[in-house]
Request: fold
Amino acid sequence: MSRLTLPPQATQVGLAVDVAAFAMHGGELRVLLVQRGALPHARDWALPGGFVYPGEELHEAALRELRTETTVQLEPRHLEQFYTFGEVNRDPRGRIVSVAHLAVLPHGTVHVTAGGHTLGAEWLSAHQPPALAFDHHAILDKAIGRLQLRLEYGNLAMEFLPDTFTLPELQGVYEAVLNRRLDKRNFRKRLLSQGILTPSGERRTGVGRPAQLYRRAKHARIAAL
Amino acid sequence: MSRLTLPPQATQVGLAVDVAAFAMHGGELRVLLVQRGALPHARDWALPGGFVYPGEELHEAALRELRTETTVQLEPRHLEQFYTFGEVNRDPRGRIVSVAHLAVLPHGTVHVTAGGHTLGAEWLSAHQPPALAFDHHAILDKAIGRLQLRLEYGNLAMEFLPDTFTLPELQGVYEAVLNRRLDKRNFRKRLLSQGILTPSGERRTGVGRPAQLYRRAKHARIAAL
DNA sequence: CCAAAAGTGTTGCACCTACACCCATGA
DNA sequence: TCATGGGTGTAGGTGCAACACTTTTGG
Reply:
């Protein structure tokens, strides 16, 4: 295939990724936010993100930002591009187009510390976030919408939990993401009838009757769209 | 808000849009394709698309490409960004990121002629397209998937038809987009029970019993996602 | 034995599928 | 009157929502 050059009318823009990374903490859906260390919007909260390197794929950039802007060690269990924000004036520095990604991290990834050039990184409430820089509020909104879609039509909820988990824990994920209460009996019937859970041993909690532990069945894939 | 400049690490890439524009023709779902007039992929079929102008919004660029690469006069009834294709080597000219859009044009927009720098423009079968340039096959696939989603969970089908239409015509749209036959009685029950159709006068066709005409009800909006 | 959380069934309703015949019109 | 396409109803199955009590464990 011939090597050609970009035609003159090709608009050059800054290409960035932003990542809305979700995890459960304290029975609540949290999103990973960083406190910006540089202008514009210094000291404001923002989604982790930044410019894509030359020769770097979009999803690689998303992973890199997640690992350098914060100190998240674990791999995301799910990473998905969901929308591209390209409004002309969304960034005061010039035309910057951001391909927004949705990530889900398993339980146990709640310890983050500042990395890279950010002042801090924290898991904050996804449903009541603080004020955010740029158009990150719109990005977060759309990310939550996509996440809810993937819960109801995919099997994304298990990615929030460790390898083995109980049904009440799984229900807790659903309730936190959907932001409403669910009926215990109906929830169990629905999940168990899907055949995507395999029982293992028992588990004793501090208090109350012990719950059955499950792991995800061998099949059980996440819906495409 | 302070005016700042792009930081040095900002990768500059070519920003493009591609449009998968659909319409009904000959009882079949068609997609608008252009025959490229320039390298790379000269003479190959491709989705209409091109570079975004500086200061131009993404959806404006999509509309402009639709109107200059081809001679489509009517406004699309629906225009929606659905995915961004940014693989490093998707275009031999360099790093070009394309924000792909889905458009639906009403009946009556089937006359297209070449415009701009293309050799030709035609409505071709969306389900059996010819070989396409670049990664446009993947773009078309994803566009059809999104279109099917919008049919089943939104009310997008009416946008393919003139202001007034019959139920058999509407069913034809569903069948063409979903690429399978539907039961006439079940289809009517479902659509009429949604209350998104308003009857108007009768209509006589050349042959057979005349069909009732409908128009879209005042409410009846398209689902977000 | 008490507190706490896990676990369990039934019923009504809404929706979907499968399926075959009559009706209105123009030629 | 015939060919053509429009229009209609029922019955079975499936999935979802509502709803309250019993079981198992640790303290």
